[in-house]
Amino acid sequence: MTTAPSPAQAPAEPTSALDRFFEISKRGSTVGTEIRGGLVTFVTMAYIVILNPIILSGKPDVAGDVLAFNAVGAATALTAGVMTILFGLVTRLPFAFAAGLGINAFVAFSVVGQVTWPEAMALVMINGLIIVLLAATGLRKAIFDAVPFQLKIAITVGIGLFIAFIGFVNSGFVTATGASSPPVGLGVNGSVATVPSLLFVVTLLLTGILVALRIKGGMLIGLIGGTVLAVIVEAIWHIGARGFDDEGNVVNPGGWGLTVPALNGSPVSVPDLSLVGAVDFTFDFGKVGIVAVVMIVFTLLFTNFFDAMGTMTGLAKEANLADDNGDFPRIKSALIVEGVGAIAGGATSSSSSTVFIESGSGIGEGARTGLANVVTGVVFLIAMFFTPLTSIVPTEIAAAALIIVGAMMMSQIRHIDFLDFRVLLPVFLTVSVMPLTYSIANGIGAGFVSWVLIHAFSGKAKTISPLLWVVGAGFLIFFARGPIEALFGVGI
């Protein structure tokens, strides 16, 4: 189901077969805008090619085996490129794909402590198969429809704050204090004391001014300008990377957080695709019990299912492609392809590939169709051969775009009526729990459970969808999975 474009974006007659296929003019966009949006999305997401290998590689499984850094990086770029293009062609939506943050950490730090890497990726694939089945049968859409409108808006706003929080952390503007209270603070000892964080502020303000002036390509200009400035600064002062020594102490605390904006050696490298197809479905239940396997799949399913649902809801709202109920064009196809992303991520050992919240940066640049996805996906495929060049964009610079997008998504809160406390508290919990627990799924779960309980015990039980009862109960199990695992001896 599509919605009418805003008055400022009145539909125009398609000018070509490309225009008709992607509905570019119909959505008030242009080919140039879609290309810019796709490039902005890639620049904002490019860090995943470096970050995903950092999370997944070097973590020994139960057999003591590890994944090679370069192989994970290549597999990450390959999967992101293929899935982003596939999603754009099938759904015509500007939602890019990459390895899901949170899911990859769960796999690296929890799952491979119980199974081998090939078995862990097989479980990711099983999770994807279940999601595809739920989407194909219409159950996933039914659950989506059961979510009240106010919670859908809250999910959008919460994701905006989550995106902004990620940006603040990646930039070094917000850091862990190491104390119990407060757990986070401003920069270093309460001030912006590092050059990378200062460049983040400069890029944020520059991009904000360009966006406020409605300059075409403002976000892309801001990102490129910030990156060029970072390269010049690094070339002059040789700031280097921030790291840790063998005792866990911070080395070079004023350095770049993840990627150093400098090119050392050749920008071209041959991608290592040795991890493609490295999965193993022959689980040794003597070493890992069936209960443990079920709990792993359950956790993957809930995280993948609701992270993606929340992200797509927020992005569709931000792109003005959702109707009053939160539905957007080709929603069933979108839900199916998202499940395919989990299967593809497992098959390439890059972890579940899902809709990326950073797609909002391209949407903020004006992207409204799947053509932007094709651009992003093609650049990801090219990036397999240019990993050194991709890593030039420092996370501190990319973080500025996330703050801009978070601000844009925050504007959706105007559609919520805060006069009813039955609505206010679940909305507040949804919005606040996402960034505070660093999980979209946790925020959605807090909103669902509180909505069901507050309405049930305040005389509004009849207004609750039966499916929402079921999902709320499922989230209670999700939140209590630690004690449940202990009860059944999982991981002991």
Topology:
Layout: H1 17-22, H2 31-45, H3 48-56, H4 69-91, E1 97-99, H5 103-109, H6 117-136, H7 139-146, H8 149-171, E2 174-176, E3 184-186, H9 195-212, H10 218-237, E4 243-244, E5 250-251, H11 290-318, H12 331-347, E6 353-355, H13 359-364, H14 370-383, H15 387-390, H16 395-410, H17 421-437, H18 440-456, H19 466-479, H20 481-487
Antiparallel strand pairs: 1-6, 2-3, 4-5
Helix pairs in contact: 2-14, 3-4, 4-12, 4-14, 6-11, 6-12, 8-11, 8-16, 8-17, 8-18, 9-10, 9-16, 10-16, 11-12, 11-18, 17-18, 18-19
Measured distance between first and last alpha carbons:
49 Å
The SSE string, one letter per element, is HHHHEHHHHEEHHEEHHEHHHHHHHH
Q: Specify the number of helices.
A: 20
- The biggest beta sheet, please? 2 strands, antiparallel
Helix content: 55-70%
Kindly report the spatial arrangement of strands forming the biggest sheet.
1-6
Q: Mean of the pLDDT scores?
A: 86
Assembly classification: single chain
**Radius of gyration of CA atoms, rounded to a whole number:** 22 Å
- The domain tally reads 1
Strand content: under 5%
Pick out the low-confidence regions. 1-9
| Secondary-structure-derived class | mainly alpha
